[in-house]
Amino acid sequence: MLSAGTPVRVRLDWPETRGRCHIRTPHYVRGRPGEIVRHLGDFPNPEDLAFARPAKPVALYHVRFRQADLWPAADPWPHPAGDEILIELYEHWLEAA
Length: 97
Prior knowledge:
By secondary structure, the chain is mostly beta strands. The chain has one domain: SH3 type barrels (Roll). The chain has two helices and five strands. It has a five-stranded antiparallel sheet with strand order 4-3-2-1-5. The protein starts with 6 loop residues before the first strand and ends with a strand. Pfam families: NHase_beta_C. This is Nitrile hydratase beta subunit domain-containing protein. InterPro entries: CN_hydtase_beta_dom_C (IPR024690), Elect_transpt_acc-like_dom_sf (IPR008990). Residues 4-95 form the Nitrile hydratase beta subunit domain.
């Protein structure tokens, strides 16, 4: 299990280009650095459940991303440059940063 404060990177992967799949990981965070905020529990993998496949429990986390890491060229107005976004991501999408 990953601890709060652990730096991570979202896998830069596009499984939807390799065939039928169900992905809950937003495109704009793939390959980007973030930080674990909290473990939310372990849940059956929705990427398997979507196709009625057996689904092992997978850890789900709140991961915090800095605005500048997701959209470095974006004009920060009307949002302060220190804004963050919090996303729920499954552990198999996360790598050590």
